[in-house]
Amino acid sequence: MPTALINSLRDPAVRDLAWVIGAPGLLDAAHPEYRGRVVDDAWCSAQLQAATPWLVALDQSPQALHDFIAAFPTRRLGHYFETLIRFWLMQLPDTRVIATNLQVHEEQRTVGEYDFLFRNASAEVCHWEAAVKFYLQVEAKPEQRTFIGPGTRDRLDIKLDHVFRHQLHLGQTHAGQSALPQGVVLSQAQAYIKGYLFYHVSTPGRAAVAGVSAAHQSGWWLRHKQDELPQTSTDSHWIIPPRLHWLAPLRLAEDAMVMSGSTLKAALDAHFSNGTEATLVMELLRDENGEWREAARGFVVCSSWPVLEEQV
């Protein structure tokens, strides 16, 4: 993780952009089933290094990025993630974005979508299937199926099966080829999937999971009123961030409104008295300059979680 660069950036959107470019992916690009079909961490790290001067300059004057984000308003984290990718691709040297979110139709029904089509510096036409995902391990077993979304409507193995068996194969189907702009021939199709995996606070360690990157970013999860909040320091404070602030590690000004542990517990009691939706919390510590920095993050879920849906 390019911690030094992200820590140096002050603008939240620029920090998120740097995270989108350089954060470790969720998938193991060397896994036999994924080889050649995942944008790997080494490439992302090289891209981040090359983009560092641009990001530093953008951090000093971020209005262009802010305007671009404002042109695609959303409350969905996945859409925000894709907006940042689009902005980045449009700035890459000798790269031309051909289409984004290009739908594929067959017999008047939508059968898929190309998230990103672009021509890279080597004149290759690339198809990226992009996603940012957050999964909680519901059983301490080294299997993809044990990771489910906080809302229980999503599961890692099902998501990846759809990506690799359907979405990345669109370009090989008649409908997928017919949807491509005239003269465009695909050179490669890859998954660009980032995010975090969360492990129960009682889980002593992380066992390797086939297809999951050993470098993936992670956090903890616990059930409300059944498990104690973990703390890395007695000086910890807390925040419940809005969904669009879930990407890069959080950085807040020294006078930001943060919560003590007791205030957080009261907020969580109030939250779960009115519903069952899982909530992400971040533990914060002051740095040497007095600013708040994210020390850890985790999901707090209701005491009956998970109530699994049929597909899970």
Task: Provide a compact summary of the structure.
The chain is of the alpha/beta class and 312 residues long. The chain is 29% helix and 26% strand.
Compute the number of structural domains. Answer: 1
> What's the overall geometry?
globular
Beta-strand fraction estimate: 25-35%
The percentage helix is: 25-40%
Average pLDDT confidence is 95
Sheet with the most strands, sense and barrel status: 10 strands, mixed
Q: Oligomerization state of this entry?
A: single chain
- DSSP summary, beta strand count: 10
* Tally of individual helices: 8
**Low-confidence spans:** none
Structural class based on helices, strands and sheet pairing: alpha/beta
How far apart are the first and last residues' alpha carbons, in Å? 31 Å
Radius of gyration: 20 Å
The helix/strand series, from N terminus to C terminus, equals: HHHHHEEEEHHEEEEHEE
